[in-house]
Automatic annotation (TrEMBL):
Subcellular location: Membrane
GO BP: any one term: axonogenesis
Identification of the protein by name: Leucine-rich repeat and transmembrane domain-containing protein 1
Organism annotation: Moschus moschiferus
Pfam families: LRR_8, LRRNT
Superkingdom field: Eukaryota
Family to which the UniProt record says this protein belongs: Belongs to the SLITRK family.
Domain LRRCT, chain residue ranges per copy: 180-233
InterPro entries hit by this protein: Cys-rich_flank_reg_C, Leu-rich_rpt, Leu-rich_rpt_typical-subtyp, LRR_dom_sf, LRRNT
Amino acid sequence: MEGELFLLSSVIFLLPVACGCPERCHCHSPSNAVDCSRQGLAEIPSDLPPQTLTLHLQDNQIHQLPTAAFKSVPQLTTLNLYNNSLSNLTPGVFHGLQHLRVLNLTQNSLHFLESRLFHSLPQLRELDLSSNNISHLPASLGEPWENLTVLAIQQNRLRQLDRALLESMPRMKRLFLKDNLWKCNCHLLSLKLWLETFVYKGGITDSVICVSPDTWKGKDLLEIPHELYHPCPFPSLHLQSSQVPQGAAPRAVPRLSNSHSTGERDHRECEVKPKPRPANLRHAVATTVITGVVCGVVCLMMLAAAIYGCTYAAITAQYHGGRLAQANKPTKTEGKELSDSSLA
Ligand SMILES: *[C@@H]1O[C@H](CO)[C@@H](O)[C@H](O)[C@H]1NC(C)=O
Ligand SMILES: *[C@@H]1O[C@H](CO)[C@@H](O)[C@H](O)[C@H]1NC(C)=O
Ligand SMILES: *[C@@H]1O[C@H](CO)[C@@H](O)[C@H](O)[C@H]1NC(C)=O
Ligand SMILES: *[C@@H]1O[C@H](CO)[C@@H](O)[C@H](O)[C@H]1NC(C)=O
């Protein structure tokens, strides 16, 4: 026991000297871990060993990270930025971290994430964004997210979540969503449906407790009966985003812009929504009207033609009748004359 303690203390005291460890950090050579936690750091140390695999920067006061902040440690697999003061992340901040598997950003002050922010992290498996101030997540955060299995976004200010984002993470195993400002209107139906499939397939999640509208406040999204979502534009949500019919998109967009209106109003909007049928009906009515008009015109023309034909026939018959009565008497030459005049 004493020997182990001695070994440990000698490792702790000798290593910083041995491998050029940053001044306020502890470096553990065998595991290539660098611990710079609780040092009151305002920025990341500049002289990190290039072979670093794990970097602990938690419990500091880092406000800002420059573009490609970790380019000196390209082998990094775990980066812990828990409990810092980051309020935004520069695009390209994680550039070059091809091997990063775990990124912990919990307990910062992030309120916004750039689309494709994690684009340069193809190996990412665990992303912790919990306990921030995020009110919106873009539809795409990273291009290849095939390896992401853990996503924690609990304790933020999210009202809704884009289904496209969830669909970009097919290997998701654990998803943490609780303690957000979930607004359980039509927009959240896609999340509900996605979660039902996710849980059915064995995925682990916590609860999505509605904060608004008032009718569903405090209720778990997964426990709201499907019937109550019937007024929502259902069909487009059952399909993959690529299969959504073109006509369905414009109907969904205007309601998105209403996300800051009161819950009650939104709930009403949810119910009083144009159904797809009237458009078809209007189309059908137009077709009927046009057909009717065309038929009417044709009928009128036929009638006119018939009247004209009958009148003409009657007049001709009358004329012929007169001529025939006369022709009964005259000679052959006059008959020839008649046929000549009728030809003229
Ligand atoms: C966060 O870090 C500060 C030091 O920057 C520390 O005083 C505080 O206890 C930490 N908070 C938690 C919850 O660990
Ligand atoms: C989050 O935002 C709210 C208001 O938008 C603010 O009161 C709160 O201090 C913020 N929290 C953090 C951790 O920045
Ligand atoms: C996912 O991880 C595997 C194994 O580490 C790796 O081979 C693959 O390239 C990763 N996926 C992407 C999109 O990088
Ligand atoms: C991030 O760090 C916090 C605090 O240490 C921890 O509770 C959490 O599990 C970590 N998240 C991940 C994904 O490792």
